[in-house]
Design a protein that fits this description.
64% of the residues lie in helices and 12% in strands. The chain has 278 residues and is an alpha+beta fold. It has 3 domains: 96 residues, no CATH class; 120 residues, 2-Layer Sandwich (Alpha-Beta Plaits); 34 residues. The strands form 2 sheets. A 4-stranded antiparallel β-sheet has the order 2-3-1-4. A two-stranded antiparallel sheet has the order 5-6.
């Protein structure tokens, strides 16, 4: 008896599992169709949120500008012993680049730069505005300055590039630093990227709308056709009483005619009763 019941329960569980998987597979296409029908709403909300993100960035985020200069680091002491550039010279110069990238942001150079440009920035503020980058493991170093105006970024970069070679030669003996590309006034905004923030706003609005539509679709338990019955209850549909359009342009069918004939009969009965009372 117990064995029979366990087999029956296992069959029911397997049937339920099969019905659940079938439901998940069948509901994907209707869900996609539902989202396609709402594509105008998704795009509209995305455009609205993207526009709001653009104006919010324009109003609340202050633009910054970046100016840079390029310098070449040379191991002058090793190069002076020979006219040829050896591998040891290159290796020593690469090590000097790492040293120079740290020294450029030191208090010694930045304090000298503040006196040169006289913009009212402190050494601590300049440290947050200056970054360095070594180009492709070479002896070339790139120095970047980010400020709130193109003129300020240019003046700071120009001041650092002016005082750095002399101070570097005094600090690191037997080496030299030469400016390869001098700073120029930037002609475009470094940050923020208005296109990037607008696209992020559009994507965020569209994704949020899609999630809300998916939740609305999944919470809708209305049965609209026989496929919903088969997917929900895992039972076949034996028959359907359709409502079809006849040649006269109206609907016909057993259910339709039965319902509306009964409705018309009730109206006639009420009309007769009212006439008798009159």
């Amino acid at each position: 008896m117990n064995l029979t019941m366990s087999k029956k329960n296992s069959k029911e569980k397997n049937a339920n599992k099969g019905g659940f998987s079938a439901e998940m597979e069948i509901n994907i296409l209707p869900l996609l169709g539902y989202l396609v029908k709402k594509i105008f709403i998704i795009i509209l909300v995305g455009v609205i949120t993207g526009t709001l993100a653009f104006f919010a960035t324009k109003i609340f985020v202050h633009p910054t500008y970046r100016c840079s200069f390029t310098a070449y680091v040379n191991n002058k002491q090793s190069a002076a012993t020979s006219d040829l550039l050896t591998s040891s010279d290159v290796s020593a110069a690469k090590q000097l680049v790492l040293t120079y990238s740290k020294i450029i942001k030191s208090n010694t150079i930045l304090s000298a730069a503040t006196e040169e440009m006289d913009l009212g920035y402190s050494v601590k503020q300049l440290k947050g505005m200056v970054t360095t980058e070594i180009q492709d493991e070479t002896e070339i170093i790139q120095v970047y300055v980010v400020a709130r105006s193109p003129e300020e970024s240019y003046k700071i970069a120009n001041a650092i590039g002016k005082v750095s070679p002399k101070i570097m030669a005094d600090i690191v003996e037997g080496s030299s630093m030469k400016i390869v590309e001098y700073p120029q006034i930037p002609d475009h905004i470094f940050k923020p990227s208005y296109v990037k923030y607008t696209l992020l706003g559009f994507v965020a609005g569209a994704v949020l709308t899609i999630l809300l539509l998916i939740i609305q679709f999944l919470r809708n338990d209305t049965i609209t056709n026989e496929a919903d019955i088969e997917a929900r209850f895992s039972v076949p549909v034996l028959g359907v009483i359709p409502d079809v359009y006849n040649q006269g342009g109206g609907k016909s069918g057993y259910y339709y005619e039965y319902y509306y004939e009964k409705k018309d009969d009730k109206k006639d009965d009420k009309g007769d009763q009212n006439s008798e009372k009159a």
